[in-house]
Amino acid sequence: MGKEAKTNAMRILEREKVAYTAHEYPHEEGVAVDGVTVAASIGEDPACVYKTLVTQGNSKNYFVFVIPVAAELDLKAAARSVGEKSVAMIHVADINKVTGYVRGGCSPVGMKKQYRTVFDESVLTQQKVYVSGGRIGTQVCCAPADLIRAARAATAKIIF
């Protein structure tokens, strides 16, 4: 396959001096794969594989929440964690416009703009964490503290 094409997420992790490993998983071109399937295909416990969700608050600001792939975002807790009255998931059609990433390839690192980002506090119990590498078919794995720093994120209890 030759030299692996780096994504924006990988470039930022390198710039921030974050040690990471990239992991490819099988997928159909342009088709998002659910996170539990991704975890199985890279041979990892779904508890250490996280998905990136993008929301919009009452204020019209965008917020990014990063949670375990098998978990569900608690929208009320998520809103509280960023000081909003409420947050709602953005439409799939808006993901690329807002983040620069496609659905299924949205990384918490390297979006078009730096949005307020919150990881579920469960990330702190993991030795390593996987998130999208910035395109469908690629995950990056690194230490949670390094990932949180690179994403300029906070942590809070944001899942049920």
TrEMBL record:
For this UniProt record, the keywords arranged alphabetically read as follows:
Lyase, Protein biosynthesis
One GO BP: translation
Q: Which residues form the signal peptide?
A: none
Query: Which GO molecular function terms does the record list?
Result: aminoacyl-tRNA deacylase activity; lyase activity
Check the record and name the InterPro entries matching this protein: Prolyl-tRNA_editing_YbaK/EbsC, YbaK/aa-tRNA-synt-asso_dom_sf, YbaK/aa-tRNA-synth-assoc-dom
Top EC class for this record? lyase
EC assignment: the record states 4.2.-.-
Similarity remark:
Belongs to the prolyl-tRNA editing family. YbaK/EbsC subfamily.
Q: Does the keyword Protein biosynthesis apply?
A: yes
Name this polypeptide is given: Cys-tRNA(Pro)/Cys-tRNA(Cys) deacylase
